[in-house]
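Posting this for the archive.
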Amino acid sequence: MKKFIYKELVAASSRPMVLSILAAGDQYGYEIIRQVERLSGGDLKWSPGMLYPLLHRLERDGLIEGYWELTDEERPRKYYRLTARGRQQMSIDRESWRAISAALEISWRGADVSAG
C-alpha cells in the first residue's frame, strides 16, 4: 500500500533530494526520477512534469549545470552535474533538514507520551 505524502513536503524536499543525488554523480532526468523512487522505497513517484521545472530552476540558480551527450543510439541526452555552489547549498539544506527532523522527533515523542 502506497503511503500518502503531502505535496508540500515533497516540494520542500525536492531541491535537497536532487542535489544529494547529483552529489553522487552526473545523471539525466529519468535516472533521477528512478533514484528518488528507489531511495524512498517506492513512496515517492516523481513525474517529468515535476522534475524538469525543478532542474531548470536549479540550473538557473547556478546549483547544477546541464550538458548534452550522445547515447549509444546516437541520440542527445541532457545530463546534470552539481556545481560548487550546489554543493554548498546541499550542506546548508542538510543541516536545516537535520534540525527540523530532530525538533519534530522530540515533539512527536512528547505527543506520544502525553497522548497515553
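The CA atoms of residues 97 and 103 lie 10 Å apart. The chain has a mean pLDDT of 92.
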